[in-house]
Fold this protein.
Amino acid sequence: MWAQEAVARDVFSSAITSGVALLLLRFWEELAKRGVFEQTLSRKLVHISVGLTFMLFWPMFSSGELAPFLAAIAPVFNIIRMIFLGLGIWRNDAIVKSMSRYGDYRELLKGPLFYACTITLATTVFWRTSPVAIAAVCNLCAGDGVADVIGRRFGRVKLPYNSSKSYAGSVAMAAAGFLASVGYMYYYSLFGFVEVSWGKTLGFLLVSLAATAVESLPISSKFDDNLTVPLTSFLVGSLVF
């Protein structure tokens, strides 16, 4: 009976989480359609908000074995959507405009697809009790997203080894990724999922610094930082936690 109640709770939580995620995406799509923000900023607002909002709903789920997989329905749906849009099977100019750099639907098969895959991996493999999941999502969403926003506005002084990256953007990325990670550590500790400690805080700092260092390299522009940043976070996080 407990197992049945847990599954029912998780199905309900999955429906709520998926609904909120879709509404949030729809909200940004509508703003992109209306031209409220310029395309680059619109894309980064989606980048920052979707993953972090999704993580807020993880405590709704039970401790059952199916919970992380039911929670992952929303990002898996997004993976399917990115594939259909990126292949041109489905057309939606508002979604493409809100998630792509240059308005090319084929871009969705790169950064946005990697983004959705990262959220899915963090949910199904690591889940809410793992600092690795927190670090990966927070550095991808908050860190990488804020870096672009700050770098474009205040990044006049460029890095000596990468003229497309700035000191301001890199500092913003390390700070945002770290602060978001610590914030979620405290948030999940309220539900007993993660224990607050200085060791974890230091680990989050190391992961954010490593992710920032990799993001600043020219290779991240070549392979897409939506791929290199989470991979670095997963690798370094698995070593320090």
